[in-house]
Design a protein that fits this description.
The chain is globular and about 50 Å long. The chain has a single domain (3-9, 29-122, 196-204, 214-378), classed as 3-Layer(aba) Sandwich (Rossmann fold), CATH 3.40.50.1820. 36% of the residues lie in helices and 13% in strands. The chain has helices at residues 37-64, 87-96, 107-117, 170-180, 199-213, 228-242, 265-269, 279-290, 325-337, 362-378; strands at residues 7-8, 127-134, 137-144, 152-156, 183-187, 221-226, 250-254, 314-319, 342-347.
Length: 380
């Protein structure tokens, strides 16, 4: 195994990778698409609650509850971790844990509400946003003023496979583009329950093929995603490898949801610390996305893939208060064993996709700086 294959972060109290025995597959089957629409509707309402409530309340909280003023993001911020949680993060997370708001309405109404809430959240400046489309995909370009030539990042948003868009993720995408100086093509992929697997992965593959066809060299393309989007990014790489396409130069996962079984220890261990969601909230989302496919199938749980060899360098960001923390450690352990160059950083006390709060907490700005450094080192 090459010496670069075991680059575990020791700068923090990052947990060691979980046991490889966690990869054992059962025979569980799911057939949720034959279940009633009402059940699906309730499921999406639950997952939307955690996300929607945090987004709609946090800006008012920032000014009314703690007196914090958003601090500008610094692309040159190199400090990876804080020895202690920042006061801003502590106050924000305490507030989010007190929020209990359940949105209602149709799938379309809930998604629209999720997007509309982002209007209250500042985006990074110096980034142009343009519509994007091609054969089999649609999305948006996020182009920083100082973008590097012939380098691109393909981004898949999170949202439990059922909500989210290039609008809902505008703060994350503009901060990432500003920090890295890399053009980002972000996708509005098809979502469950209207479109089950493999629709979202098909859309991601269509965009990746289009980038290759537009003249981008594979080694100058990065793929990235947060939460469910990280799942899609890993699935894209595995399919590209199996189809013999040029592989991306690197990949980044943020709070990745990479094992849809929702059975890891962190689901319960961090249930009281992560205000964004719970295992009971996301398990129905997994079933809606997988359709008739078992949740332990590597097609929908790519961290369980039997063969992870040949993948490009992967940088994983996770946190000790995230219920999906163990998913990143599982992938890191299995990919490292397969000879993949893996780097994993764990932020103490951060919640699921804390990057969304870059306008409030320094830890999010730290994380963007680390991603930028990784991309600029790999995309050459």
């Amino acid at each position: 195994m090459p010496p670069t294959a075991r680059r575990w972060s020791t700068a923090t109290c990052a947990r060691p990778p979980i046991s490889m025995s966690a990869c054992r597959c059962g025979a569980r089957q799911s057939n949720v698409m034959r279940r009633s629409w009402r059940r699906g509707h309730g499921s999406i309402a639950i997952i939307s609650a955690a996300i929607f409530a945090s987004l709609t309340c946090r800006c008012r909280w920032a000014s009314d509850r703690c007196g914090c003023s958003p601090r500008p993001y610094c692309p040159n911020f190199t400090r990876c971790h804080h020895a202690m949680i920042s006061p801003e993060a502590k106050k924000l997370f305490e507030y989010l844990r007190s929020v209990d708001t359940l949105p209602s309405g149709t799938f379309e109404e809930q998604r629209a509400g999720f997007d509309a809430s982002i209007a209250k959240v500042p985006s990074a400046g110096g980034v142009a946003i343009e519509p994007a489309s091609g054969p089999g995909f649609a999305g948006a370009w996020f182009r920083p003023d100082d973008a590097r030539e012939a380098v691109v990042l393909l981004y898949l948003h999170g949202g439990g496979f059922v909500v989210g868009s290039t609008v809902s993720h505008r703060p994350i995408l503009t901060n990432l583009a500003s920090a890295s100086g890399v053009d980002i093509l972000a996708l509005d992929y098809r979502m469950a329950p209207e479109h089950v697997y493999p629709a979202a992965v098909d859309d991601a593959m269509a965009a990746y093929r289009w980038l290759l066809g537009e003249g981008y060299a594979g080694h100058r393309i990065a793929v990235a995603g947060d939460s469910a989007g990280a799942n899609l990014a890993l699935s894209l790489m595995l399919r590209a490898r199996d189809e013999g396409l040029p592989l991306p130069g690197c990949a980044v996962t943020i709070s990745g949801w990479l094992d849809l079984r929702v059975t890891s220890d962190s689901i319960t261990r961090n249930a009281s610390t992560d205000p964004m969601m719970t295992g009971d909230m996301i398990r129905p989302m997994a079933e809606l996305y997988a359709g008739d496919i078992a949740l332990d199938d590597p097609r929908v749980s790519p961290a369980l893939a039997l063969d992870l060899s040949g993948l490009p360098p992967i940088y994983l960001q996770t946190s000790t208060a995230d219920i999906l923390e163990d998913d990143s450690h599982l992938l890191a352990a299995r990919a490292t064993a397969a000879g993949v160059d893996v780097t994993i950083d764990s932020w103490p006390g951060m919640i699921h996709v804390w990057h969304a709060f870059a306008h409030i907490i320094p830890e999010a700005r730290d994380a963007f700086g680390k991603i930028a450094a990784f991309l600029n080192a790999r995309l050459r």
